[in-house]
Amino acid sequence: MSDRYNVTDITPVYDIRCTIKVDMVTMRDGVKLHTDIFFPPEFSGKAPVLMLRSPYSRTTWFDLPNAECLEKNVIYIVQSTRGTGWSEGGVFDPVAKEFEITDAEDTFNWLAQQDFFNGTCLMYGASYPGWMQWSAAFTAHRVLAGIAPRVAPIYGCVGSARKGGGNFWNFATHWMLSMHHRRKYGYAGVPSYDDLKVDWAIPAENADLTAGYPENEPFRKFIAASRNPGKLLSASLGNFAKITVPAFISGGWFDGFREETITSFQLMKHSSATELARNATHLVVGPWEHSGLVNPDLFGEENDYRDLNPLQSKFLFNLAADRNADPLPQVPQVKYFMLGENRWYESSDWPPPEMRYTSLFLHGDGTITANKSGDSTPRSYISDPNDPVRYANGVPGVTGCYDCRKTEERSDVLVYTTGELGEDIRIAGEVKLQFTAKVDAPDTDFFVTLTEVESDGRSMLRIRGMVRARFRNTLDKEELLTPGEKASYEVVLGNVAACFRKGNRLRISIAGQDFPKYDRNAQSGKVPFTDTELFAARCTICHDSIAELQLPTV
Predict the structure, then answer these.
(1) CB-count exposure of residue 296 (10 Å: 0-12, 13-18, 19+)
(2) How many other C-beta atoms lie within 10 A of the C-beta of residue 430?
(3) Could you give the 3-state DSSP secondary structure of residue 498?
(4) Three-state DSSP class for residue 319
(5) Which among 212, 247, 268, 366 is most buried, taking Cβ atoms within 10 Å?
(6) Which residue from 415, 447, 441, 432 is spatially nearest to 539, judged by alpha carbons?
(7) Which of 72, 152, 87 is nearest to 120 (CA)?
(8) 306-324: b (≥16 Cβ within 10 Å) or e
(9) How would you write the pLDDT of the chain (554 residues) with one tens digit per residue?
(10) CA-CA-CA-CA torsion for 68, 72, 75, 81, nearest 10 degrees?
(11) Is the distance from CB of 174 to CB of 201 less than 8 angstroms?
(12) Three-state secondary structure of 91-119
């Protein structure tokens, strides 16, 4: 498979000639990975390489080359990760993350020996290919000069634990089971997991059986990793101190990997191994979800990736020309979109250095004020995983910003609202809510949603976060509740930039589920995903203690 094949009509979109060489690159354990090498027309000598490592290659066609890469006389390489495409390695098992790091290192060693390579390799790609770039950067290999991960996880593709201790359930079922199907049966005929109601499986670990598959070990390992969220979420963070090259990091405020996008920039900016890596790494966050712009009617069609893509290309190809120089010397390190104001801002860091926390307080009459004192009446709801509060009002496929009023009208959702704002409030950073509650069960979940209430009554999503009670004190140790006793909680809703406009209102809602985006807590205190019965629990927010909303105002 090492012969070269002339390809003259890959696609009319590119209208470019190239030459393909296909190699099966041998890893240290003998597994061979399918690797497509696209050479510019009439190529000779040596050149830099732009590489994509991906699990999404099919066995029915070649992946298309990056036309801009070939036009700039840069070699383009696509490699299928182990267990995918034409690569060897058995089943696709992302929990075995050590393979992705060692496979990247072995690929770099192979590349360094090729007579066409000039010693400079760049990488790019979104989602799992973004995680492949972090894995590659952790090797600190001499050939790697820079990376450009988009909507990329740093722990979310090796297990489904989330900050707060919950499980990214709908992603776990749909992604892992579809990857199993594609590997075993091909890309055609992937079933509708929504129609099959795999998310509703009881016990939850039987979602693979509900989908019609035999018991699937990689899927079960993937969800089991969230039983120890502290270990999963911290496993890769120390590796950032090894990274020697800069990164162009991009993501969206409505992307499921938003927090990992932010964390990766912060670690690069403050913990990476070289001055170039720290000072030449960039972060761009826009009004996007995993596949791009959402709600163009709200945020503007012009705010898609059209400005991001040229900047990313400039970053990569400037490094290809000089790997030791800052590829974007005149560009601030952070660029972020302010939701509501629909304006781009620039900063030297995230959160912006001028950010200061402003506190507001939730009261028993459902109000939010700047005063600590207020109505101390407790407020309760019944959290019932048999009738869970539904993500996006229960409409499958909804992403981005949506009106939350239908959810807020439920009797098992507590709502707190400010009066009309006398001035704009801009926030940019991590939103937090601290409160005290009593629960008559050994475990439960608290989901906290921040919305902006428009003058017409629409309650538009800005950000949501959660905490699982058993992980309320630390993600490293389970501590079940004593039913009926008060306990303190902090829900970190996450990072966002948003402007709450004068005349509108700010709203917080508290609920027990966000299903099926997150799994249903059985509230039994037993091992997650194994319960055959789900239990209702009464949850009471205690307003005789302070319930404090911390807003990162700028």
Answers:
(1) middle
(2) 21
(3) strand
(4) helix
(5) 247
(6) 441
(7) 72
(8) eebeebbbebbbbbbeebe
(9) 333 333 333 333 445 689 999 999 999 999 999 999 999 998 999 999 999 999 999 888 778 889 999 999 999 999 999 999 999 999 999 998 899 999 999 999 999 999 999 999 999 999 999 999 999 999 999 999 999 999 999 999 999 999 999 999 999 999 999 999 999 999 989 999 999 999 999 999 999 999 999 999 999 999 998 899 999 999 999 999 999 999 999 999 999 999 999 999 999 999 999 999 999 999 999 999 999 999 999 999 999 998 899 999 999 999 999 999 999 999 999 999 999 999 999 999 999 999 999 999 999 999 999 999 999 999 999 999 999 999 999 988 788 999 999 999 999 999 999 999 999 999 999 999 999 999 999 999 999 999 999 999 999 999 999 999 999 999 999 999 999 999 999 999 999 999 999 999 999 999 999 999 999 999 999 999 999 999 999 999 999 999 999 999 99
(10) -30
(11) no
(12) CCCCCCHHHHHHHHHHHHHHHHCCCCEEE
Count the residues in the chain: 554
Alpha helix locations (H) across 96-235? 97-112, 128-137, 169-185, 207-210, 217-224, 229-234
Q: How far is the CA of 455 from the CAs of 152, 206, 402, 458, in angstroms?
A: 36, 45, 15, 7
Which residue, among 259, 300, 283, 277, has the nearest Cα to 335 in the 3D structure? Answer: 283
Instruction: Report the half-sphere exposure of 206 (CA within 13 A, side-chain side).
Output: 9
- Indicate the SS3 state at residue 24: strand
Burial of 77 (0-12, 13-18, 19+ CB in 10 A): buried
Q: What secondary structure, in 3-state letters, does 500-540 show? A: ECCCCEEEEEEECCCECCCCCCCCCCCCCCCCCCCCCEEEE
- Is-contact 179 92, C-beta < 8 A? yes
Q: Which helix (DSSP H) or strand (DSSP E) does residue 271 occupy?
A: helix 258-271
Dihedrals φ, ψ of 486, to 5°? Answer: -70, 145
Element (H, E) at 80: strand 75-80
Count Cβ atoms below 10 Å from residue 212 Cβ, excluding itself.
Answer: 12
Distance, CA of 410 to CA of 389 (rounded, Å)? 8
d(CA 180, CA 84): 10
Taking the complete model, does pTM exceed 0.85, yes or no? yes
Closest CA to 339 of 285, 397, 262, 276: 285
Which helix (H) or strand (E) segment holds residue 262: the answer is helix 258-271
**Whether 241 contacts 273, CB under 8 Å:** yes
Residues whose CB is less than 8 angstroms from the CB of residue 68 and which lie 6 or more positions away in sequence, other chains included: 313
Which of 447, 455, 437, 441 is closest to 410 using CA atoms? 447
Does residue 127 sit in helix, strand or coil? coil
Q: Are 214 and 177 in contact (CB under 8 A)?
A: no
Torsional sign, CA 480, 485, 487, 491: positive
Cis peptide before 203 (omega within 30 of 0): yes
